[in-house]
């Protein structure tokens, strides 16, 4: 599905990543973890197209997408969510999801306001689809609320609904549990599994170890810009090098 091949990334003299090679298997949930400064965010940014890699390639299926900007990647099925939620605060929750759907439709957000008959039926279809995604993430009752007024946890769910409306093949999530309380994190775990059960491949960078160990099929551990380990949650929990890397961090 998604393959990172020999990824290296340098910022001036600093090597943030080197020799990162792994595949995200179709239909699975992959977690990317590692101590602070390990290179997780940088790897995420290379995978989603914020940074070009200094070395190596990002492949989606057979296609080398290393040079594609984030929006072109989204159009071919690689969609991301952000750690700092990016919503249109003045629009309603429903409109936030509809904007995403309009970008795929022949009826743009402005053109639809002209209200030609075919546009109205297209508009209705988009509205229904947006409502279905709000329902999927569990916030259909908030459809008419201004997005800027949402509590943080609900904003994260809206962001996931908006990403899902783009019908990704693979959803990359940047610290989806950051800022959530334990109840919200447990709900998020269920939601991510539900997304996987729809056939969408998921990869996430996450600090919440319980969440990662609970939901991931595969975990990739980064340390100091290199790949320290790859395996199932159990293999990772028992890996002495991983344990040492995390212990080193807590002693700092
Ligand atoms: N834009 C940048 N310019 C220069 N150096 C950077 C840049 N982005 C990251 N780095 C450096 O690359 C290294 C890896 O950082 P990165 O943020 O990817 O780690 P991380 O694993 O996401 O850390 P954390 O868990 O603390 O978020 C660090 O040494 C960081 O200072």
From TrEMBL:
This is ABC transporter ATP-binding protein. It comes from Geomesophilobacter sediminis. It comes from the Bacteria. InterPro entries: AAA+_ATPase, ABC_AA/LPS_Transport, ABC_transporter-like_ATP-bd, BCA_ABC_TP_C, P-loop_NTPase. Pfam families: ABC_tran, BCA_ABC_TP_C. GO terms for molecular function: ATP binding; ATP hydrolysis activity; L-isoleucine transmembrane transporter activity; L-phenylalanine transmembrane transporter activity; L-valine transmembrane transporter activity. Keywords: ATP-binding, Nucleotide-binding, Transport. GO terms for biological process: D-alanine transmembrane transport; L-alanine transport; L-isoleucine import across plasma membrane; L-valine import across plasma membrane. One of its GO terms (cellular component) is plasma membrane. Residues 2-249 form the ABC transporter domain. SMART domains: AAA (SM00382). Transmembrane segments: none annotated.
């Amino acid at each position: 599905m998604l393959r990172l091949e020999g990824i290296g990334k340098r910022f001036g003299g600093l090597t943030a990543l080197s020799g990162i090679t792994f595949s995200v298997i179709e239909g699975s949930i992959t977690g990317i973890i590692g101590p602070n400064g390990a290179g997780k965010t940088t790897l995420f940014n290379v995978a989603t197209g914020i940074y070009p890699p200094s070395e190596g390639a990002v492949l989606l299926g057979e296609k080398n997408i290393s040079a594609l900007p984030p929006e072109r990647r989204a159009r071919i099925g690689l969609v991301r969510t952000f750690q700092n939620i990016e919503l249109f605060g003045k629009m309603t929750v429903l409109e936030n999801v509809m904007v995403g759907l309009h970008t795929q439709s022949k009826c743009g957000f402005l053109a639809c306001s002209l209200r030609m008959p075919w546009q109205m039926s297209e508009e209705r279809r988009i509205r229904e689809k947006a409502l279905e995604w709000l329902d999927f993430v569990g916030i259909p009752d908030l459809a008419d609320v201004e997005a800027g007024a949402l509590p943080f946890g609900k904003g994260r769910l809206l962001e996931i609904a908006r990403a899902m409306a783009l019908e990704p093949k693979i959803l990359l999530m940047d610290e989806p549990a950051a800022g959530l309380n334990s109840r919200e994190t447990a709900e998020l775990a269920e939601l991510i599994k539900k997304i996987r059960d729809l056939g969408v491949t998921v990869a996430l960078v996450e600090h919440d170890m319980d969440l990662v160990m609970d939901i991931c099929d595969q975990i990739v551990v980064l340390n100091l810009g290199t790949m320290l380990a790859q395996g199932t949650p159990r293999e990772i929990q028992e890996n002495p090098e991983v344990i040492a890397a995390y212990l080193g961090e807590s002693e700092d």
